[in-house]
Write a structure and sequence with these properties.
Helices cover 34% and strands 24% of the residues. The chain has eleven helices and 13 strands. Bound molecules: 1-O-phosphono-alpha-D-glucopyranose.
Length: 295
């Protein structure tokens, strides 16, 4: 097995407008909405850190400055916590703070699509393989999704995309892959199609928002024409790259919550709250009672 170059950097495209979640996202970025007691983006960053990521690259946009503040020291707050001997809170905040110099922020000036957002990170990523994590999607259960992909990448090299089963009726909402020969815990991808017309999807395995990509993708995205939704699509760029390089799929076995949508966000809150020993006892009974009271 060839030694693969370590995946050190991860790109988080956080410029999206959050139109599926208005009015909540009118003044608050969707990535800052809280699941139990952490912003959505923290779960995704934690998943990246678990997979060994050392540098976190946020592609932001106008109105997203609070994300940058969140990953910085809040001096007045910490000073106040120190004065009041709130040590547990101080330790919590310190544990979540990225080491200075390991978080970078750049702006996608115009919302031209996911492919364009990833391209905006090209200078910060440079000439090395990197991860992309869509910040709407929170994963739960078992080994972290990106960690599983990094393990597969050690065997497969090339590019790796996480996939998951979806209801075939929903396939037209996603990027869908075709299934090839097994490799490691996954399989080789034979086909990729972004938002296939109903009844034309090559499988029911959808791209769930986690990617390991080789840097050659940047050159392709630079001239990528607009595709589905009149946006510069990452999937279209990957299709071009797939002519020259291998793509493997990592089938993620846990749960994925689409926190950019109201139902996914609410389910994520319920699921994560029920995992918490400090919260579950207080909510389990009332939740059951609420369900039982439904007519
Ligand atoms: C994007 C990707 C798509 C993927 C989806 C997962 O689509 O282009 O391939 O399946 O995320 O959420 P979007 O949700 O931006 O339309």
């Amino acid at each position: 097995m060839a030694q693969q170059q370590k995946i050190r950097k991860a790109v988080f495209p956080v410029a999206g407008l959050g139109t599926r979640f208005l009015p909540a996202t009118k003044a608050v970025p969707k990535e800052m909405l809280t699941v139990v007691d952490k912003p959505v983006i923290q779960y995704v960053v934690d998943e990246a850190a678990e997979a060994g990521i050392e540098h976190f690259v946020f592609v932001t946009g106008r109105g997203k400055g609070v994300i940058e503040d969140y990953f910085d020291i809040q001096y007045e707050l910490e000073q106040m916590l120190r004065e009041r001997n709130k040590n547990a809170e101080l330790t919590l905040l310190a544990g979540l703070l990225p080491v200075a110099g390991t978080a970078s922020f750049t702006r996608q000036q115009v919302p031209l699509g996911l492919g364009h957002a990833v391209w905006c990170a090209r200078d910060i990523v440079g000439n090395e393989p990197f991860a992309v994590l869509l910040p709407d999607m929170i994963m739960a259960g078992g080994k972290g999704c990106l960690k599983g992909m990094v393990d597969l990448y050690a065997e497969s090299g090339g590019n790796v995309i996480a996939v998951q089963e979806c209801d075939p009726d929903q396939a037209h909402k996603y990027g869908i892959v075709g299934i090839g020969a097994p490799v490691g815990e996954g399989f080789k991808i034979t086909q990729m199609v972004e938002k296939p017309a109903k009844g034309t999807a090559p499988s029911n395995l959808y791209i769930n928002g986690r990617y390991i990509l080789q840097p050659e993708i940047f050159k392709i995205l630079e001239t990528q024409e607009r595709g589905a939704g009149n946006e510069i699509q990452l999937t279209d760029g990957m299709l071009t790259l797939a002519k020259a390089q291998e793509f493997a799929a990592y089938p993620f076995k846990g749960d994925t919550f689409d926190c950019g949508a109201k139902d996914g966000f609410i389910l994520a809150n319920l699921a994560f709250a029920l995992q918490r020993a400090d919260i579950r006892p207080a909510i389990e009974g009332p939740m059951k009672a609420l369900l039982a009271s439904l007519k």
